[in-house]
Amino acid sequence: MSPYDPSAYPSFAVTVDLVVLTVRRHSLCALTVRRGEPPFQGRWALPGGFVKADEDLADAAARELVEETGLCVHDPAAPESSGNGAHLEQLGTYGDPQRDPRMRVVSVAHLALAPDLPAPRAGGDANSARWSPVETFLDQDGEQGSLAFDHAQILGDGVERARPKIEYSSLATAFCTPEFTVGELRRVYEAVWGVALDPRNFHRKVTGTPGFLVPTGGTTTRQGGRPAQLFRAGGATLLNPPMLRPEV
What we know:
alpha+beta, two-stranded antiparallel ribbon, 5 helices, elongated
């Protein structure tokens, strides 16, 4: 084996950034934090942090998720009584040499989805945190590009990962509490896609897909009106036929 000289290669840091999405008041919202230190002091950014020397990427992302939201990653093997947790998956890698003015930093972004979350708490080098409708930073008439670093691009990539994925997977149920109504699930689709869906057609599609929804035997009146049947997510991971997003 030929000699290997680590000093011959430049060192760089690795971070994890989190696109944390939830549905609040029928809108798709992302968690953002106001940076308390340079660079970009005072600017809004996605939560995240540096990967520790003894961490792998998944552990670092899970740690940051707990620190920023108090949420643990969803464990499919855990009993239902333990709660949903958050769906967490790797989104992409961002390594533009100029993305961080401090040094060369490569970020491995992760997408986290969870049901309606409470008011966030700031931690680390952030001095405040908030939920913002994603259009605040992505709409051309909004604050596009106002996020620190390249976080507007990362947020956009996270939203575009979620939007088509709920067409063919059970990902939309990750935005719901353990027991939910078809109407509550429909509002998730409407918030993520930004469109209104026909309630009857939606009900027929989701209840007619084997293994997608499982009746719990209970009902609720929390949405007002007549009691609505409660469901939980079934074991199906793929929807066939898919729930196609309407053209807008």
